[in-house]
Design goal:
Chains A, B: Keywords: Hydrolase. The structure is a homodimer. By secondary structure, chain A is α/β, with parallel strands linked by helices. Chain A is built from nine helices and six strands, in the order E-H-H-H-H-H-E-H-E-H-E-H-E-E-H.
Chain lengths: ~230, ~230
């Protein structure tokens, strides 16, 4: 049927955000509040981590994601008016970032997408070394043809350069790539850079109401995968 | 004494951040948690407001601070898994941003600095119209020779361009200006852009541990003013 050439082709490459999207952060959601004795501490800490990664980006400076994570623990203490944690406690908490399991739905979703012929690439704000350790620990590294870190451009997602560098690294046009994330800011960034996007609407996550909506939305990765495969 | 020419001269212009630095946000700290019936709601909301202003900046888009504030109320609802607020409640909460009193220490601090011969300029992420309304409501507008909004460059603080545009607008070199803020990210941005900086260490505020420290720190504006005047 020649008319099929008129329809928008499927993306060739799927880029996957890692933290919260593929990996379950429950360990940190328990450990950070426990360390401070304050149940608001995880959300405060992770919010500061994301905010200050962008502070670095817009002020023309760069520190690694684990270094900002450690600094954000001190800022969390100050903002919640709690005692700062010891250096060893901070290091132990930050090291949990590389000891997170995959969400239970993730292997099945990745299998569906791999079987459907998509190229799968991990793409994260974590440094390259952490990314490799994360995917190995979660036992999902074999699904991906490669892992990309924003370390290469020293700008954090959702800066538009990070997505442009990622699609260049995998050798496709922005319109041939689709970013999958559980974060509204990541989806907004990918869309602004000309990629398609898919939101995994995990509990407690949200879209940015002022950005254009994602191409696909699903409650977990298999649900999203079935939409993308079509 | 000719040797005095060797010492670093005082700044000529003092740029003041507005929200939380000059203005007391207690009204919003009460009203936002009350509207959601969730005591975490203010910190979640204000953190999202700051984070998404930077999401706009790094994705090459721009929405006004009040528009992001309103969107952040919906994101707060989703992230706390509470019900979204009605449009009228959201508008009412956001309108409180232009109905905030000055912190009690602020008029005295501004007087000290004005008497010492400094040029005082307000410099904020709020739009120009909101800024004018804020300073009028707080009865401190007469201390300032002008008010500057990042609306002119459509990039949010702490993007380095915002400070460069501000010092250009007041006709001085970056090294002749000093930014005063209660926020670690604002101090970090000013320092990165070559300005000097002063932190008002209000309760629940914090420096960014990975940035260079501010030139001055004080618990309130008069304490900071006395250091700057020297």
């Amino acid at each position: 049927m020649p008319s099929s050439a008129l329809y928008r082709p499927q993306p060739k490459v799927l880029l996957f955000d890692v933290n919260e999207t593929l990996l379950d952060m429950s360990k940190l959601k328990l450990a950070v509040p426990k360390a401070f004795g304050n149940k608001h501490a995880f959300k405060q800490w992770f919010g500061l981590l994301l905010q200050y990664s962008l502070v670095d980006t817009v002020t023309g400076t760069y520190h690694s994601f684990p270094d900002i994570a450690e600094a954000a623990l001190d800022m969390t203490a100050d903002m919640l008016e709690e005692k700062r944690l010891s250096v060893s406690t901070k290091k132990q908490l930050v090291s949990l970032l590389t000891q997170l399991p995959a969400h239970p739905d993730v292997p099945r979703g990745l299998e569906l997408l791999l079987d459907a012929g998509f190229r799968l690439v991990a793409f994260t704000n974590s440094p390259q070394e952490s990314l490799d350790a994360q995917l190995r620990y979660a036992k999902i590294i074999h699904y991906f043809e490669q892992g990309l870190s924003i370390e290469a451009v020293q700008l954090y997602k959702p800066h538009f350069h990070t997505y442009q560098a990622a699609v260049k690294a995998v050798g496709v046009a922005p319109t041939d790539a689709l970013l999958i994330a559980a974060h509204g800011w990541d989806v907004a960034g990918a869309q602004a850079a000309g990629l398609r996007s898919g939101l995994i609407a995990r509990p407690g996550q949200t879209l940015y109401p002022l950005a254009s909506p994602p191409t696909y939305q699903g409650k977990d990765l298999p649900a999203l995968a079935r939409q993308i495969i079509g």
